[in-house]
Amino acid sequence: MSGPTVLSSTIIDASAVDYVIVALYFAVVLGIGLLARRQVSDSLDFFLSGRSLPAWVTGLAFVSANLGAVEIMGMSANGAQFGLPAVHYFWIGAIPAMLFLGVVMMPFYYGSKVRSVPEFMFKRFGTGAHLVNSISFAVAQLLIAGINLYLLGSIINALLGWNLTLALIVAAIIVLSYITLGGLSAAIYNEVLQFFVIVAALLPLTILGLHEVGGWDGLKDKITANAGVGGSATADQQLNSWPGTALTGFSSDFWSIVGIVFGLGFVLSFGYWTTNFVEVQRAMATDSISSARKTPIIGAYPKMFVPFITILPGMIAAVLVTEIVKTKEGQAVSGGAGGTVTFNDSLIYLMRDLLPNGLLGVAIAGLLAAFMAGMAANISAFNTVMSYDLWQRYVVKDKEDGYYLRVGRWATVAATVIAIFTAQLASNFSNIMNYLQTLFGFFNAPLFATFILGMFWKRMTATAGWVGLSSGTIAAVIVAFLSEDAFGSWSTGVLSLSGQGASFVAAGAAFVVDIVLSIVVSMGTQPKPAAELRGLVYSETPKEDLVDPEEASHPWYQRTMPLAGIALVLVIILNFLF
User: Fold this and answer.
1) What are the transmembrane regions (predicted)?
2) d(CA 90, CA 112)
3) How far is CA 124 from CA 274, 282, 386, 466, in A?
4) pLDDT tens, 322-361?
5) Does residue 196 contact residue 173 with C-beta atoms inside 8 Å?
């Protein structure tokens, strides 16, 4: 984060028209916040949009909330460094879990009328697991918001030449303004707008880049010609998604596949998508249980094509942009947001080389949209958990609704300020994607283990809930600390695990330890009576509680199961094609 107060030059020379486009975008964002404020009369409006939004709105917001700074910059960096194996973060590490969330888990969330995932944990396991989950979730959101803010400040610094600290503060104030004004409605409607702005920014970049390299065949030829130089992956490793050894860092094809399928595709993916309230909160804001189920399923369709506007530009930059080509060859090149060019700078340099002024302004606005979408999603989820799961339940009880609405707004301000400091923590890690996946291993993997066991095994007890959560998190931290670089400069290197493979192993360890200890503890403690588990455990919940009776009368393209089935078939086809 340290550096000169003012940059003497910027990577991209933005013109007046680019600044006008960016300013107009910010004006629209704040305008949406002001309009949404008129609809906020109570805490349900602020935290869950009054449960009034249609599925298509929440479906796009569901994707946009995840299409943030880390996704765009991190996945373009992965594309530049590893090539096609990076698609596993989408086709293995997202779509199946999104479909599972919509088909199986959303009915439990929506039907129980909870305001957060920790609140669901309270109903199933009681105070111990609820408190552990609430605290870990709140900490995770502050850390991840800091990642988004750090990348936002770094990119504004590189693009526009602003002082990095000033860029962080200005960006934080803008996000704070529209979340504090309009609550979740402002966040969700801005996320829908941001989805289209992001696509408008990245799609032309992809098309122009493919044209420049001679199409897909030309790109493959150039990657093949440059492969293996300076220790980079072979052409086969970069142009085929399986077995993905370049991505995992495993020498064995078999263990690489196991790591991707179990570590990423099951533990990390299901842990993130099915228990992360940042995403679930969007579905909870819908107008019916049917819309809630369809929210992640509708989101799966654009999600499966996001690699073509994130990973593909990174692959193009790795053969087209001189600085990235040299970086991939192992050379140290001065420049970039941090003084030395890294793969994280791939998208910025590709924009510099391909986009004319005007279109460049749209691209800058798109990046800013992505950064703010991610940070706003983290903060809007944090303020709900802080207000209700921690403050109302453990600090100040039985106050009027308006009091907790004010607490939520103050929690938003506090989270934004804290994110400025956690942004500096993120700067200690050379690979932001490694850092993010490590955090998911800490917080999401053990939560998913507790959640899935408790939802399908009625014998699991309250004691097992908090013991499993705590022990799983500790197991993931130990594995990450012993690996080579999952903890950045603080890792010990005792285990020969590096790259994103280390986070897959840490997540797997968290899941297994959590499951084993939860079973052992459950066998020695007293479970809840079956009568208290309706709506919380699958076997004890009548089918009519889990479906919308009116959905059967809808045409097939508006029903949950056909939409999920088509999405699953499409993602299987994509895996075979690439």
Assistant:
1) 16-36, 56-77, 89-110, 131-153, 159-181, 193-211, 254-274, 304-325, 359-382, 403-423, 435-457, 464-482, 502-524, 560-577
2) 30
3) 16, 22, 19, 11
4) 888 888 877 777 766 566 777 877 888 888 888 887 777 7
5) no
What mean pLDDT comes out for the span 272-291? 73
Query: What are the residues facing 340 on neighbouring strands?
Result: 334
Q: Which of 180, 150, 200, 164 is nearest to 30 (CA)?
A: 180
Strand locations in 454-524, DSSP E?
A: none
Cα–Cα distance between 452 and 463 in angstroms, integer? 16
DSSP codes, 374-435:
HHHHHHHHHHHIIIIIIIIIIIS-S--HHHHHHHHHHHHHHHHHHHHHHHHHHTT-S-HHHH
Q: What is the DSSP letter of 340?
A: B
Q: Give pLDDT tens digits for 141-192.
A: 888 888 878 777 776 776 666 766 777 777 777 767 656 654 545 556 666 6
Distance CA 255, CA 268 (A): 16
What phi and psi, each to the nearest 5 degrees, are found at residue 321? -90, 120
Scanning 9-126, the segments in alpha helix (DSSP H) are: 16-37, 43-48, 55-66, 69, 75-82, 88-91, 95-100, 106-111, 117-125
Contacts (Cβ under 8 Å, ≥6 apart) of 154: 164, 167, 337, 338
| Collapsed DSSP state (helix, strand, coil) of residue 11 | coil
pLDDT confidence tier of residue 1, bands split at 50, 70 and 90? very low
pLDDT, one tens digit per residue, over 26-56 is: 777 667 666 655 554 444 444 444 445 666 6
d(CA 125, CA 451): 10
538 HSE (CA, 13 A, CB side)? 11
- Pick from 499, 399, 387: nearest CA to 46: 387
